[in-house]
Amino acid sequence: MSDNFGENSKVVFQQPHTSTLVRIFWVDTSGQCRCRVVPTNRFHDVITKNGIGLTVACMALTSLRDCVPPETDLTATGEIRLIPDLSTLRTIPWTTGEEMVLADMHLRPGEPWECCPREALKRAAEALKQEFNLEVDAGFETEFYLLRPVIREGKEELLPFDSTPYCSASAFDAAAPILHDMFAALQSLNIPMEQVHSEAGKGQFEMALEHSECERAADNLVYAREVIRAVARKHGLIATLAPKYNLDDIGSGCHVHISLLENGVNVFTGTPGSNHGISKLGQEFMAGVLFHLPALLAFIAPTPNSYDRIQPDMWSGAYHCWGKENREASLRTACPPGIEDGLVSNFEIKSFDGCTNPYLGLASIIVAGLDGLRNHLRLPPPIEANPSELKGEVKRLPKSLSESLEALHNDKIFEDLLGTKLLKAITCVRKAEVEIYAENSEAYKQLVYRY
C-alpha cells in the first residue's frame, strides 16, 4: 500500500499536542474490550504507579449480559488493579484531546493476577521461549460488516452498507472514505495494514494486519478493532465483527496466521525436500494445534453464534483436518508470494473469530503447540479436497459451544499454563453463554452492539 492511501480522507485525524483524558483498556473473558477513562494529570500522577481499581467480577461477564454467572469464583468481593502498560500508550486518532493505553491486571502493583489475559499470553510465550527458544509470530485477518442504522416505525433496523460481491471495486469506491480513514488511523497508531478488500457478505470487508510477535499482534488487534468501530461511527455507520450477525448471510472470522521464529528467523518453514515444506518443529507445533483443536474452539470460537459461522462449504474450517492451501480445512498451510515454491511460511487457523479475546486465543494456541513439541506429535496426511465431499472420512469439529466445552473438559493440557482460576472463569462464562442463547433464539442480534 502506498503511503498516501489516507490522503483524501474526509474525517481529519488530529494529533493533539496535549490530552485531557486517557482511556484504560482491558479485554474480558468474553472478548469484549472495555475501558475506564481518567483525567490525564491523574493518569500520570497516580495511576501509572498505583493503577486503577476494578472488581474481579469484570473478568466474568458474558457476551450479552453484564452480570456474573455462578461458580466463576469471581464475585462482588475482591478487587484488582489495572496497571497501564506505557509501551502501548497512544494518541487516539479519531477524536481530539484523548489517549489510550492497554492495561495489565495485578492483585497489587508488581503482582500479576492469575486471571489477566495479557499475563496468560506472557506465561505461554515464555514457556515456549524457555523450552524451545521459539517465539510465535501472528498475523490477523479481521472481517467486519458495515451497517447503516435506519429508524422505521420507531424501531432501529440495520441495513447492509451495500450489496456488491466479493472483491468488488464498486464496494471499495463506495467505502473508500471510510477505509481511507481507517488506514490513516492505523498508520497513526503504527499498526501496518497489508491489504483490504470487500468480502462476499453484503457490506462485508476484510482487513489484513501485518504479522508480528504474538503479544504485539494481540495488542494491535485490540486497537484495530477499536479503529474499525470508531471510524464507522464517525461516518454514521455501525461496524460489527460478530461471527454471524445475519444468519442468512456470510459469517465473519478473524483468521490468524501462525509461524515460529528462532532468533528472528522463521523456522516454521522447511527446507527443499522437507515433508510438506514445513520444518520438523513446525510440523510438531501444528500437529499439537490440530490435535487439540476441538478444545481450542472454546477459546477461539467463544459464543454460540460462533458455531452458526463454522459450517461446511463456507470456508470457515468446519472439519477436523489440515490442508495445503485448502480453504475448507480448519488449518491451512500457506505459501504467500516471496516464499520458495513448495515451502510453507505459516499456517492459518480459520475458526478464530471477532468475539475472541486475542490474548486468550493466542495463549491457548501456544499451549496446544507446546504439547505437540513436547510429545513430538505428527501431522496426519493433508486433505486436498473439500472435506464435506468425502462422505464422512473427515470428522466435523464441535458443532456447538456445548460440544467444544465438553472437549475442553476432557483435554487437560491447558490448566498448567493458563491457571486453574482463569480456566474455571472461562469455562463458567462459556456455560452461561450456552444457557443465555438457549433461552432466547434471537440473542445473537445484540452482538452487533458489543463486537
Explained architecture:
The chain has about 450 residues and is α+β, with helices and mostly antiparallel strands. Helix content is about 30%, strand content about 25%. The protein contains eleven helices and 18 strands. Strands 8, 9, 10, 11, 12, 13, 14, 15, 16, 17 and 18 form an eleven-stranded mixed beta sheet that branches. Strands 1, 2, 3, 4, 5, 6 and 7 form a seven-stranded mixed beta sheet that branches. A hairpin with a 2-residue loop joins strand 6 (about 100-110) and strand 7. Helix 2 runs parallel beside helix 8 and helix 3 packs across helix 4 (about 215-235). The longest helix has 21 residues, at about 215-235. The two termini are about 25 Å apart.
Mean pLDDT: 91
Biggest sheet record: 11 strands, mixed
Shape: globular
Name the structural class: alpha+beta
Strand elements, count: 18
CA-based gyration radius: 21 Å
Helix fraction by DSSP (H/I, runs of at least 4): 25-40%
The percent range for strand residues is 15-25%
The topology string of helices and strands comes to: EEHEEEEEHEEHEEEHEEEHHHEEEHHHH
Oligomer: single chain
